[in-house]
Automatic annotation (TrEMBL):
<dbReference type="InterPro" id="IPR028883">
    <property type="entry name" value="tRNA_aden_deaminase"/>
</dbReference>
<feature type="binding site">
    <location>
        <position position="56"/>
    </location>
    <ligand>
        <name>Zn(2+)</name>
    </ligand>
</feature>
<dbReference type="Pfam" id="PF14437">
    <property type="entry name" value="MafB19-deam"/>
</dbReference>
<comment type="similarity">
    <text>Belongs to the cytidine and deoxycytidylate deaminase family. ADAT2 subfamily.</text>
</comment>
<protein>
    <recommendedName>
        <fullName>tRNA-specific adenosine deaminase</fullName>
        <ecNumber>3.5.4.33</ecNumber>
    </recommendedName>
</protein>
<dbReference type="InterPro" id="IPR002125">
    <property type="entry name" value="CMP_dCMP_dom"/>
</dbReference>
<dbReference type="InterPro" id="IPR016192">
    <property type="entry name" value="APOBEC/CMP_deaminase_Zn-bd"/>
</dbReference>
<comment type="function">
    <text>Catalyzes the deamination of adenosine to inosine at the wobble position 34 of tRNA(Arg2).</text>
</comment>
<feature type="binding site">
    <location>
        <position position="86"/>
    </location>
    <ligand>
        <name>Zn(2+)</name>
    </ligand>
</feature>
<dbReference type="GO" id="GO:0002100">
    <property type="term" value="P:tRNA wobble adenosine to inosine editing"/>
</dbReference>
<feature type="binding site">
    <location>
        <position position="89"/>
    </location>
    <ligand>
        <name>Zn(2+)</name>
    </ligand>
</feature>
<feature type="active site" description="Proton donor">
    <location>
        <position position="58"/>
    </location>
</feature>
<keyword id="KW-0819">tRNA processing</keyword>
<feature type="domain" description="CMP/dCMP-type deaminase">
    <location>
        <begin position="5"/>
        <end position="115"/>
    </location>
</feature>
<dbReference type="GO" id="GO:0008270">
    <property type="term" value="F:zinc ion binding"/>
</dbReference>
<comment type="subunit">
    <text>Homodimer.</text>
</comment>
<keyword id="KW-0378">Hydrolase</keyword>
Length: 149
């Protein structure tokens, strides 16, 4: 039986990565990059592990995808990430020329949208889809930070 590979399917794969981050005591953000219905990169936040403030899931996924594809641009790929990208990740995604970005939960504290940018922060050809499995992604984040209090 073929599995329907839609945005929900792939976001669940990104959520699996976020759960790995949670288990590693990292902020639970997961990301995957898909091209031609195949996952070419998987990543989760590794800021604490690597002692690197730039080790966000999106950055690690991009680096992995560039290596896998042997390319510096990803115009035919889609990033699925559980949380709205921050400004740093938005910049990296801009330069990757990624074809599509799909994210789950909004991030009122650190997401790119909190800055009220007058200009779209991604490449002009990048298509953006928001809110896929947002409740599940938000629940994971809330659970993580609740465990820290």
């Amino acid at each position: 039986m073929d599995v329907l590979k839609d945005d929900t399917y792939f976001m669940r794969k990104a959520l699996e990565q976020a759960e790995l981050a949670f288990e590693a005591d990292e902020v639970p953000v997961g990301a995957i990059i898909v091209q031609n219905d195949e996952i070419i990169a998987r990543a989760y936040n590794q800021v604490e592990l690597l002692k690197d403030a730039t080790a966000h899931a999106e950055i690690i996924a991009l680096t992995t995808a560039f290596a896998a594809m042997g390319a510096k641009y990803l115009p035919d790929a889609t990033l699925y990430v559980t949380l709205e990208p921050c400004l740093m990740c938005a910049g990296a995604l801009y330069w990757s020329k990624i074809g599509r970005i799909v994210y789950g939960a909004s991030d009122e504290k650190n997401g790119y949208s909190r800055y009220g940018l007058e200009q779209y922060p991604f490449h002009p050809k990048t298509i953006l889809t928001k809110g896929v499995l947002a409740d599940e992604a938000a629940f994971l984040m809330k659970s993580f930070f609740k465990s820290k209090r």
